[in-house]
Amino acid sequence: MIKKIVLIGAGNVATHLGSALCGAGCDVVQVYSRTKESAMELADKLSAEYTVSVDGIRCDADMYIVALKDSALQELLPMLVKGREQAFFVHTAGSMPMDIWKGYLSHYGVFYPMQTFSKQRAVDFATVPFFVEAGGETELKMLKELAGKLSPKVYEATSEQRKYLHIAAVFACNFANHMYALSARILEKHHIPFEVMLSLIDETAKKVHELPPAKAQTGPAIRYDENVINRHLDLLADVPDMQELYEKISKSIYKQK
Amino acid sequence: MIKKIVLIGAGNVATHLGSALCGAGCDVVQVYSRTKESAMELADKLSAEYTVSVDGIRCDADMYIVALKDSALQELLPMLVKGREQAFFVHTAGSMPMDIWKGYLSHYGVFYPMQTFSKQRAVDFATVPFFVEAGGETELKMLKELAGKLSPKVYEATSEQRKYLHIAAVFACNFANHMYALSARILEKHHIPFEVMLSLIDETAKKVHELPPAKAQTGPAIRYDENVINRHLDLLADVPDMQELYEKISKSIYKQK
User: Fold this and answer.
1) Which helix (H) or strand (E) holds A161?
2) Measured between alpha carbons, how far is residue A203 from residues A7, A208, B26, B122 in Å?
3) Residues of chain A where predicted confidence (pLDDT) is lower than 70
4) Which residue of B has its CA nearest to A180?
5) For residue B83, what are the CA distances in angstroms to B57, B58, B66?
6) Does A169 reach chain B within 8 Å, measured CB to CB?
7) Which ipTM was obtained for this model?
8) Nearest chain A Cα to B220, which residue?
9) Looking at the partner chain, which of B153, B186, B204 has a beta carbon nearest the beta carbon of A173?
């Protein structure tokens, strides 16, 4: 059973996951981050030690959860595992294959919570799906058990599936949020509070619980209402990047019909 | 006070608005649609008469609500108002100015419910913001009163503001929904149920109740994680339209930072 955990990383994922693990009775014993301030802040929150040097990372934890930007993970990996070859390492990256651990370690896996984490907002882990993968059956069982403490939605996913899950999540979350951001930019420019958009945003999200998104589509593009589309393109003439996105997304909507 | 209403149009907006008006104690006396089937279906639902000819539209209603595609509204307008010059006409189109009525009528306005309406899904009008505009004070008062029966969120908006509201709504709703649809396309191709994406979608929508969307942004584009972005672009090589959108939206996210 996993009890003593070291967190490698102190960003949004590490912060929320660390708090949730502590809340579920795990013992986060140490936080590593290159940035002293981040390391201290999260360690303090979790009543853990902190270190800013890879050499200072403890060797006695049941599990090492690596929640770093992909490029940092790749760069740090050889140093992280050095002297800890018998330890159990997992990463939380949607887009990284499990095999990055292969050859370095005997016990490894992936522990991917598919959610959007911002420092300023608490996350209800009970609604977060976890996608787990492991090098061995024992490790898989341990990961499922650990994820199960945080959420009822625990799925096995291969690295191949997770790659596409991650792209799908970028569209459904990051890109959808950017559409909100572009909407907010328009409203701000015309002195209309973003608040008026919230019930539309909520309903758009709720609809796809009942209808497949392609069937839930409404608006000028799906009707191919050229009058409206052209008027909108004219109105966006002073923001060419938004104008281009408007045109390309409208075409993509109509094409899918 | 507005009691007897004629609905011009039998699409999604007319259908939902008609039901809500009936529920609020108004009397929808007639439905006009070019398509007999649509006219009959909605008239039946609202216990109203129906007509498929503009000449058959009654002349004794307190209000005519025109919920047509913009191009149809422009085309039909002269015929709709003919012989009904003293009647009170409103349209429900976000992108159409109020002035389309000017010169034809003495009593006119705009009654714009900003929501995404699909036939298959019931709408809770209590959460729908209404944006109203009218040619005169009396008409404005009547529209506010009518909208107030359906929703507590009634705002005055000029045609100029409504133009931008509508573009903002296209981004926040139609385009956000298309991001869900593209996400669903990826998942379907890899035999992953769309359902796993729902809690991420919900959280993304909920976040912007607390944080401005630009501050809520997460994912590879805002971090400019080139490793992930390039890997995703490679994985989308067989769907060039999605690949192009991925690249352009990522750049737009990073630029806004």
Assistant:
1) helix A159-169
2) 37, 9, 25, 11
3) none
4) B172
5) 10, 10, 16
6) yes
7) 0.88
8) A170
9) B204
